[in-house]
Specification:
Oligomer: single chain
Structural class: alpha/beta
Strand order of the largest sheet: 5-4-6-7-8-9-10
Mean pLDDT: 92
Strand content: 15-25%
Number of domains: 2
Order of helices and strands: HEHEEHEHEHEHHEHEHEHHE
CATH topology of the largest domain: Rossmann fold
Low-confidence stretches: none
Largest sheet: 7 strands, mixed
Number of helices: 11
CATH superfamily of the largest domain: Response regulator
Distance between the termini: 33 Å
CATH class of the largest domain: Alpha Beta
Length: about 280
């Protein structure tokens, strides 16, 4: 927003609402923002907040960061001409579930079973799970779908993965998991479980590897769009932004701790290594 001349506390006020992973609270929080007559809502916690904001208002501009095709989900009419009062960024995270599984399989060619951690409260979970199941079948792998929407359920999920002798883990791009990335990375290390994550922030926290676009890029686009809308631009005139770069990031120290030798096939794809 600063690139558009807006500085919080000087010429713009930002009212924050955070559901702390409790998606049932989102309609109430969105209603509070609508009732306070804000000029813009940035519903940046994935698909579910975006849909809640869309249901809450047809007049206040809404910006989203979504991990799935916003046209298919009904957030916008089209990418180039969104229509209505919503626009934003699609990071294609859900569509990358198959690619993440492929990379994990190349890293661990001897695995026979893996788990995927999903949040049952997310509207994108069904789609991501379907894509992952199809990819697992393609590679002849058994896929265990583990659901968690609270910290206690996350602990139980890892216990279930261990008892089912899964060889690796895929972590969904759900924002709740992103907010708990330190705990997830610690649990994966405790259980000596190789894990693929959606964002580089997990790898920076000690996670094994990630594949996806830059979250900082997505939020920069949202900030830019927010400034333009506050200056008078209409959401329908601002195309949904799409990423052009997808990075495979690996933590070398974590790989060594897990006793893994990274195959040349995977190394050739790596965009960045973190020690």
């Amino acid at each position: 927003m600063q690139s558009q001349g807006f500085i919080e506390g000087r010429n713009v006020r930002i009212d924050y609402r955070w559901a702390e992973g409790h998606y049932d609270d989102l309609p109430k929080l969105a209603a509070e923002l609508v009732q306070s007559q804000v000029n813009l809502i940035a519903a940046t916690g994935g698909v579910t907040p975006a849909q809640v904001a869309k249901n809450a208002t047809a007049t206040i501009p809404v910006l989203f960061v979504a991990g799935f095709d916003p046209v298919q989900l009904g957030l916008v009419a089209s990418l180039n001409n969104p229509g209505g009062n919503l626009t934003g960024v699609s990071v294609f995270s859900t569509e990358l579930a198959t690619k993440r599984l492929e990379v994990l399989h190349d890293l661990l060619p001897g695995i026979s079973a893996l788990g995927i951690l999903v949040n049952p409260g997310s509207v994108a979970t069904r789609i991501e799970t379907r894509e992952s199941v199809a990819a697992a079948q393609h590679f002849g792998l058994e896929l265990l779908v583990i659901e968690a929407s609270t910290e206690r359920e996350i602990d139980a999920a890892f216990a279930s993965l261990a008892s089912n002798k899964t060889n690796a883990l895929l972590v969904s791009a759900d924002p709740f998991f992103t907010s708990k990335r330190d705990e997830l990375v610690a649990l994966a290390a405790r259980h000596a479980l190789p894990a693929m994550y959606p964002w580089r922030e997990y790898v920076e926290a000690g996670g094994l590897l990630s594949y996806g676009t830059e979250l900082t890029w997505a939020y920069h686009q949202i900030g830019n769009y927010a400034g333009r809308i506050l200056k008078g631009a209409k959401p329908t005139d601002l195309p949904v932004q799409l990423p052009t770069n997808f990075d495979l990031v690996i933590n070398v120290k974590t790989a060594k701790a897990l006793g893994l030798t990274v195959p040349a096939l995977v190394l050739a794809r790596v965009s960045e290594t973190i020690d």
